């Protein structure tokens, strides 16, 4: 479904309805001039690359409907992130690794292994990788280690750099984005958007549970448009909400454009 900024449905891709099992995320590579659309179908263990108009699948990563642990398979992948020369995939709900590909989809490397619950603190061990993004200035890769309630930070070759804990249960770090020199984490347990600096120091939070306008329930995606409007997608309430910047707001306090190329 393609929706404009005012919430109007302007297009549907229903020609692909019979293919989907459980689409989990939609991405656009900011370094791609053709703005292909990537869709992660975690129950199909596959990621599909579409033309921007949705008329054609031009590439498939993973083997649809066939989970696995080698370099050609996923087992319930969750999200993607993009650098100037690489694609990173969190794989994910079953496997416990970050996979790295070039922009043509060729496998390059991977890192990570399954951790031991509860609250594994060892670098590079994961239980449910559920969020990934890249700081464009430093190139650092931020990974949400959901079931261990922490964020792990790596360089783009998988070398561990840092980690911090998001909180004790019911804390549930479901999604993250890196923007405006900050890491923004959606905590589904407290229904708050948490703001940290790039070193993991807590700065601020806002949000409350609810199905009323402005409340949140099960945020599974976040983004910002060129006008500074902030969007959240809620899996539990089945809706998208749009937040506009307040007039005269300090721009340093906003979530600025996400994944904008230099």
TrEMBL record:
Keyword hit for Cell cycle: no
Pfam families per UniProt: DUF5128
Keyword Manganese: no
Record keywords: Glycoprotein, Repeat, Signal
Protein's name according to its UniProt entry: Peptidylamidoglycolate lyase
């Amino acid at each position: 479904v393609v929706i404009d900024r005012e919430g109007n449905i302007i297009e549907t891709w229903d020609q692909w309805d019979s293919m989907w099992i459980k689409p989990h995320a939609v991405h656009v590579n900011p370094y791609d001039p053709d703005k292909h659309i990537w869709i992660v179908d975690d129950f199909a263990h596959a990621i599909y690359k579409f033309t921007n108009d949705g008329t054609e699948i031009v590439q498939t990563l993973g083997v649809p409907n066939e989970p696995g642990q080698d370099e050609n398979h996923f087992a319930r992948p969750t999200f993607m992130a993009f650098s100037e020369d690489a694609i990173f995939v969190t794989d994910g709900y079953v496997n416990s690794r970050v996979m790295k590909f070039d922009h043509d989809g060729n496998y390059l490397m991977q890192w990570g292994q399954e951790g031991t619950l509860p609250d594994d603190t060892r670098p590079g061990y994961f239980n449910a990788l559920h969020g990934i993004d890249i700081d464009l200035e430093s190139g650092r890769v931020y990974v949400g280690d959901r079931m261990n309630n922490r964020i792990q930070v790596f360089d783009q070759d998988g070398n561990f750099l840092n980690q911090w804990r998001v909180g004790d249960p019911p804390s549930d770090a479901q999604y993250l984005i890196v923007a405006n020199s900050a890491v923004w984490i959606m905590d589904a347990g407290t229904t708050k958007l948490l703001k940290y600096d790039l070193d993991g120091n807590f700065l601020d939070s806002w949000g409350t549970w609810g199905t009323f306008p402005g409340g949140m329930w099960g945020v599974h995606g976040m983004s910002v448009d060129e006008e500074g409007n902030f969007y959240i997608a809620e899996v539990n309430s089945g809706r998208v909400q749009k937040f506009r910047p307040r007039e005269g707001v300090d721009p340093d306090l906003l979530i600025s454009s996400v994944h904008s190329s230099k």
